[in-house]
Write a structure and sequence with these properties.
Strand content: under 5%
Order of helices and strands: HHHHHHH
Protein name: Transposase Tc1-like domain-containing protein
Number of strands: 0
Distance between the termini: 63 Å
Shape: rod-shaped
Largest sheet: none
Low-confidence stretches: none
Number of domains: 2
Structural class: mainly alpha
Helix content: 40-55%
Amino acid sequence: MPHPPCPNYEIATRAQVVALRLYGAPSSKVEELTGVEERTQRAMVKKAKDRGFDGSLLLNIHIEDGAHTGATYKRTPSFAKELVEKVRKDRYSHEKTLEILAHELTLEGKAIERESVKKTLHEMGFRKVKRMKKLGLLPI
């Protein structure tokens, strides 16, 4: 069973946890007062000490929430502009599927998925439409 997401605590709650633990309050009492579990309390105290807290003056820098890292955002404004240019380039670009557009962009060095192409085109005002005539059945 997966763990529930970790809550982000207010800076005042973090300060309260560190101060209470510093003055010897038992973890059960701290959890009762703040709602912060014992393991998280230990992590908060350890981070405060790692950031230079020496037990005298508690500063924001000692207890601030760390940076949240994650995947980089691939759908940049320059990507959106390039994608729109690709779609509007010629009449056959209008007939390309999302998979083909994503594959062409991948070949150009941009690792992008079909869903990202779909979301970007949708945000730019493009909508899925049916073709008015079937290709290959045009009179000669």
